[in-house]
Design a protein that fits this description.
mainly alpha, globular, 21 helices, two-stranded antiparallel ribbon, 462 residues, 2 domains
C-alpha cells in the first residue's frame, strides 16, 4: 500500500493578490476602528456644553490611505518572491565603499552651510528671517541632543528612554542659579549645569548596571518621569507647574543686546536690530554642538570609546576581555547626560521661561527617533535626521493646500505627528538601519574599510 503523499502549501497561495487585498482590508478596518474617535468625531467646548461634530471625509481618506499603502507594501515588499527593496540592499558587499569620500564631503558642506546660515536666511528670506533663524536654533539644539544621546544608545548600546531628564536638569540648574544668584551668568552657569546633569547621569547609571534591553529602557523611562514629577510637585523650589520665568539672556562680553548706549550694537557701532540676539543665540548653540561632536569623535578613538563599542556588540565578550563594564556604562551615561545638561541650559536662556511641560516623554521619543533614524553611531546621520524631522514637522505648520483638500477646519498641525509616524514607517521599511548605514570602524587591524550596519550588528565589524 503506497503511503499518502503530503504536498506542501504553495508559496503562491499565501502571496496571491487576494491574500494581499485581504490583509490590506484588515489594516483599513483596524484604522477605521482605532481612528473613529480621533478622526471621525471632533469635540469642542462651547458655552452651552460640549459640541460634537463629524468629519467623515477625513476618516474615509485615512482608511483609504492605509488600505492603499498596505496593499502596495504587500505586493512589492512583504508578500512577493522578488521585493523591490532588493535594489536598495547592499548585502555583504557593503564592506567595500562605493563612495568613500561622500560622508566626509557631506559633513564639510553641512558645516560650511551651518556657519553662514543666519546670513543666508537674512539674504534669502528678509520677511521671515526671525522665524527661520529660530527654527535653525531649534534644529541645532536637537542635533546637539542627538549627538549626546548617540553616545549612550549608538556607541554604548544602552537604550535610554529618559534622556529628557538630563535636559531638564540642565535647564532647571541654570534657571535656579541665574535667578537666585545675580552674579552667575550664562557662561558661568553653563559648566555647572553640565556637571550637575553628569552627576545625575551617574545616579541613573548605578541602579541599571545589571540591566539590558527592555528592562533598561523601562527603568530609564521611569527615571525621566520621576524627574518630571518632582519638578512638577516641588513647588517651593522649582515653581511647580508655574515654572520659572525671568531667566536672563546670555551676554556678549558683559553687554546685553539692548538699544541703549551700553548695548552690543552701540559697542560695535552698528544699527540696533532685534535679530542680533537670535543670531548670537544661533552661534552659541552651534558652538556647543561642534564641541559635542569633536569631543565625541575624539572619545571614539580613545580606549573608552572602543570599550563602549565592545559593550554594544556583546557585554559578555566585553567582560571576558577584561574591560570594566561598570566604569564603561557609567562614563557613557555621565558624558551623554553632560551634553544634555548643556543643551538644557541653552534651552532655558533661549526661552526665558521653563516648566515641567517642556520635558515630557515625547521629547525623549523624538531625540531617540533622531538617533535611530539617522543611524546608530552615525554623527552625520543625526544631523540629517534632525533637519528632516524637526524642520519637516515645523514646516507642516505652513502647509495651506491641505486645508483646501480636507476642508477649512483641517489643521495640519494636529496631524503632523500622524504624518511624522507614516514617514518613520516608510524609512524603517526601506532603511531599517537608519539613513546612514555605513561608517568607518574606530579600531583598524590591517586594512581600513567601511562597514555596513548589518555586519556591525552581527559582531563582524570589529
Amino acid at each position: 500500500m503506497a503511503a499518502p503523499t503530503v504536498t506542501a502549501p504553495s508559496r503562491q497561495d499565501t502571496n496571491s493578490f487576494a491574500a494581499s487585498v485581504k490583509d490590506a482590508a484588515i489594516a483599513g478596518a483596524l484604522t477605521g476602528v482605532l481612528g473613529f474617535f480621533f478622526l471621525a468625531l471632533r469635540t469642542e467646548i462651547a458655552p452651552g456644553g460640549l459640541e460634537v461634530s463629524t468629519r467623515w471625509g477625513v476618516w474615509i481618506v485615512a482608511i483609504l490611505i492605509v488600505f492603499a499603502g498596505r496593499l502596495l507594501l504587500n505586493l512589492f515588499v512583504f508578500k512577493t518572491d522578488k521585493p523591490v527593496t532588493r535594489y536598495f540592499s547592499t548585502g555583504k558587499s557593503s564592506a567595500s565603499p562605493r563612495l568613500p569620500w561622500l560622508g566626509r564631503a557631506l559633513g564639510i558642506f553641512l558645516f560650511l552651510v551651518a556657519t553662514v546660515l543666519p546670513f543666508l536666511i537674512i539674504a534669502l528670506f528678509p520677511a521671515q528671517q526671525r522665524q527661520f533663524i529660530d527654527l535653525a536654533i531649534l534644529i541645532m539644539t536637537y542635533v546637539m541632543l542627538g549627538w549626546g544621546l548617540n553616545i549612550v544608545v549608538g556607541l554604548a548600546g544602552l537604550l535610554d528612554l529618559g534622556y529628557v531628564a538630563f535636559y531638564a536638569v540642565g535647564a532647571y540648574s541654570f534657571a535656579l542659579l541665574s535667578t537666585h544668584f545675580e552674579f552667575i551668568g550664562f557662561w558661568t552657569a553653563l559648566p555647572l549645569a553640565g556637571m550637575l546633569a553628569a552627576f545625575w547621569g551617574l545616579i541613573l547609571g548605578f541602579p541599571v548596571l545589571r540591566l539590558r534591553g527592555d528592562y533598561l529602557a523601562i527603568v530609564t523611562l521611569a527615571f525621566g518621569e520621576i524627574i518630571r514629577i518632582v519638578l512638577l510637585n516641588w513647588y517651593d523650589f522649582t515653581g511647580g507647574p508655574n515654572g520659572i520665568s525671568g531667566i536672563p539672556k546670555p551676554t556678549f562680553l558683559g553687554m546685553d543686546f539692548s538699544r541703549g548706549d551700553d548695548g552690543v550694537a552701540a559697542f560695535l557701532g552698528i544699527e540696533y536690530s532685534t535679530i542680533h540676539r537670535f543670531i548670537y543665540l544661533y552661534y552659541i548653540i552651534f558652538l556647543l554642538a561642534i564641541i559635542t561632536n569633536l569631543v565625541t569623535m575624539r572619545l571614539r578613538k580613545l580606549p573608552v570609546g572602543r570599550a563602549w563599542e565592545a559593550l554594544r556588540e556583546d557585554e559578555i565578550a566585553c567582560r571576558s576581555l577584561g574591560i570594566n563594564t561598570t566604569n564603561t556604562k557609567l562614563t557613557a551615561f555621565a558624558i551623554g547626560a553632560m551634553f544634555g545638561g548643556f543643551a538644557g541650559s541653552f534651552f532655558a536662556t533661549r526661552q526665558g521661561f521653563i516648566s515641567p511641560e517642556s520635558f515630557t516623554f515625547l521629547e525623549s521619543a523624538i531625540i531617540l527617533a533622531i538617533v535611530v533614524l539617522g543611524g546608530l553611531g552615525s554623527q552625520i546621520g543625526v544631523v540629517i535626521a534632525s533637519v528632516v524631522m524637526i524642520g519637516g514637522i515645523e514646516l507642516l505648520r505652513n502647509i495651506g493646500f491641505l486645508s483646501q483638500i480636507f476642508g477649512p477646519d483641517f489643521d495640519p498641525v494636529q496631524y503632523r505627528m500622524l504624518i511624522f509616524g507614516l514617514a518613520m514607517v516608510g524609512i524603517m521599511v526601506w532603511k531599517p538601519r537608519g539613513l546612514v548605514t555605513t561608517r568607518e570602524p574606530t579600531a583598524v587591524l590591517k586594512e581600513k574599510k567601511r562597514i555596513g550596519a548589518d555586519m556591525v550588528a552581527q559582531g563582524e565589524g570589529h
